[in-house]
Amino acid sequence: MRAWTRRRRGAARAALELSIIAKPANPEPASSDVLIRVSHVALQFSSEGLFKLLPVLPFTYPPVPELEFSGTIVAAGDAAAADVRDTGTRVIAFVSIPDMILGRGALAEYVRVPSGNATRLAEDADMVAMAGVLGSGSTALKMLRVGGVRAGSRVLVNGASGSVGSLLVQLCKRRGVHVVAVASGGNEELVRGLGADEFIDYRMSNPLPDYLGPNYGNEPFDFVLDCVGLQALYTHSPSYLKPHGAVINVGSMEGVAATLWNWTTNTWCPIWLGGIPRQYIMFPTPPTKDDALMLVKMVEEGELKVAVDSVFEMEDAVQAYERVATKRARGRAVIRVERN
């Protein structure tokens, strides 16, 4: 089968190759696994940074990247979950983080996963949009849960037009939250259409923290939900964030290494040594079946819209990664894997 494999450390153009590798074996009769013919794969916003940071381990060679995808069941073990056991069932699915680290990722024509990692879709499901709902949606849901965001809260969503931010705005409004959204001016119509109550064009309010203090200091936020990863947004947060509020960050705009360093200092540096007197939260967000069921239901019932920035053919995956690397994508960049 065709698959993109990572041969070396570096940017996607230098690190990735379109290869022919062995197709996963059909699940054994007693197995709970399913074999899925991949339709579309949604790229993670952190992939490019990880390609540059992480070496290729010899025992994973050649590793296949990516985490979440849509597709069709082609084979299943007898112990597979009943909702995804039948051949021809449309699903969204995810590869576990350990499997992806070991090189068994999703950017291939066929992927084998435990049936608990797959969730059934309706026959008329949009396979492009659904490929990108799980990772971003799980992240957005966890941001709300960890922070305890509830009706009546005032939140700032930084990066509101991106893959996580666009879903986060909608989930906040579904909870009765007042949302102040930050994105580029060209995305104002999109973000307001998702339900944002107020809009800030970061290009006209640069640096952003200097704008927020004078304009929101008298009505400070309960939470700053940062989908970009702007350290200055936390550093200056006392001027626009309530004393018991929190900055919840899932972005890595300044690079993976810098993000890890910021997390360490933001979390552990005491106030008397120059630490910021506001809570800082950052966490891993592996997808779960429960989140998948909830997100699929909301999309199918029209309560949640998945923003798709662009769709690339399998052969053009490098261009897709370069699009994500610009940090200007309006929603998910998706690769069409299944041949027409």
UniProtKB/TrEMBL annotation:
Top-rank taxon: Eukaryota
EC number of this enzyme: 1.3.1.105
A Pfam family recorded for this sequence: ADH_zinc_N_2
Keywords: Oxidoreductase
Domain Enoyl reductase (ER), residue spans: 14-335
Signal peptide: none
Gene Ontology molecular-function annotations: furaneol oxidoreductase activity
InterPro entries reported in the protein's UniProt record: ADH-like_N, ER, GroES-like_sf, Lipid_raft_assoc_Zn_ADH, NAD(P)-bd_dom_sf
Name of this chain's protein: Zinc ion binding
Lineage of source species: Eukaryota, Fungi, Dikarya, Ascomycota, Pezizomycotina
